[in-house]
Amino acid sequence: MHEHDTRSHHTSAIDDIVRQITWQSQKQLLQTLSRPEINLTLPQMVTLFAIREAGVCRMSELAEITQQSAGTLTGIVDRLIDEHLVGRVRDVEDRRVVQVMLTRQGEQRLALVEAARRADMDRILARFSLEQLRDLEHLLQLLLDGINELISDRDLARTANGQTNPSSLSRSA
User: Which CATH architecture fits 34-127?
Assistant: First the structure.
């Protein structure tokens, strides 16, 4: 097999593995979120993490960051407010503007999600030696760097064509 063919074969195999990891990780995450002490949907979790990352933000900013429609996001945020995980606050400079922020209960719920994810990851990676963990971390970082570079290149092309660049908003939040 020529180097190009061998590389193509490995690229295809890695793409398949990444797809399977993505699918299985999402199923596992949904199981974690459905635990009684966590009890969140995936969109609620994404919204909570986005709010925590942004600190205090307008709903329009949150919609851009989470890539959700304003209507969908309003429903999600209203449910999070009902559960006392998110609060509304008035903008200091413009009292007409309503912003959202995490409450103490929201922070605590996210801490539960993070602790559960860490425990799950410890269990998943238990069969790896310390050296394998270091190697895997390094290789995954290289993969992530490549993904981020591809996204950045595409965002630059969109910006050059006058289109909105939502992924850069989520990285800056």
Answer: Orthogonal Bundle (1.10)
